[in-house]
Amino acid sequence: MNLNLHNSEFLTSAVDSRGYPNHALKEVAFVGRSNVGKSSLINALVNRNKFARTSNQPGRTQTINFYRVDTICLVDLPGYGFAKVSKEVKQQWGQMIETYLTDRLNLVGVLQLIDVRHKPSEDDQLMINWFREMDMPHVLIATKLDKISRGRYQQHAKIVREIMGADPILFSSQSKQGRSEVLGAIKSLMENADAR
After folding, report:
1. What's the alpha-carbon Rg for the chain, to the nearest Å?
2. What phi and psi values does residue 128 have, to the nearest 5 degrees?
3. Are 79 and 109 in contact (CB under 8 A)?
4. Short-list 193, 117, 128, 116, CA closest to 165
5. Taking a C-beta distance cutoff of 8 angstroms, is the pair 76, 64 a contact?
6. Per the domain annotation, does 142 fall within a domain?
7. Which ranges in 87-147 belong to alpha helices (H)?
8. 177-187 burial by CB neighbour count: b if 16+ within 10 A, else e?
9. DSSP string over 2-40
10. 98 touches 89 (CB < 8 A)
């Protein structure tokens, strides 16, 4: 499966199922804590800086954003965990994320992003365990690799592996290290869905 990454467009934003695009494309969702780099990863995949809106401010993505990339759809979900928003808004986001992940028939898998600089949070662990319980195909990606020295990559990856029980793809949106592995993971999710 070869994707034409230049043939990409923003489709729509939604807060519930009424706003989801009505299409037959398979979807891969990006989940992770606020400010972990979901939008930056999408931009790196399509080689366009401003394709998905990024921000230094945690909690910027407050809707579910759908991006068509050739014949698939990438879905950027609001961040879980820390964000300077009210408790009610956090609950709405949690519900928005869970409803999408449990009810969306187009969804074939999830990329869970965690910040390689920090120990995975309780939220990160709850999320990956939930994917396992739901039998949801998922891939773990450790972002912000450029923020630590090369000599400490493996040490940080080991902590992630031990806590999350999965081998992460190490990724940097700056150097694009790990980009081809992430694209490979997306293709595998698509192909495995076809085989099911």
Report:
1. 16
2. -70, -35
3. no
4. 128
5. yes
6. yes
7. 87-103, 122-134
8. bbbeebeebbe
9. ---TTSEEEEEEESSGGGS-----EEEEEEEBTTSSHHH
10. no
- Global pTM reads 0.90
* Amino acid type, 84: K
Q: Which of 77, 40, 75 has the alpha carbon at shortest distance from 55?
A: 40
In a domain, 151, yes or no: yes
Assign residue 51 the CATH number of its domain. Answer: 3.40.50.300
pLDDT digits (tens), the chain, 196 positions: 688 988 999 999 998 899 999 999 999 999 998 889 998 999 999 998 888 876 555 445 578 999 999 999 999 998 876 555 556 665 665 778 888 999 999 999 999 999 999 999 988 999 999 999 999 999 999 999 999 998 888 899 999 999 999 999 999 999 999 999 999 999 999 998 887 6
- The residue segments making up the domain with residue 174 are 8-195
Tokens of 167: 């081998």
Q: How many structural domains are present in the chain?
A: 1
Structure tokens at 193: 């869905």
Q: Is residue 152 part of a domain?
A: yes
Q: Which residue type is seen at 62? A: Q
Starting at the edge strand that comes first in sequence, how are the strands of the sheet with 64-69 ordered? 8-14, 64-69, 72-76, 26-32, 107-115, 138-143, 169-170
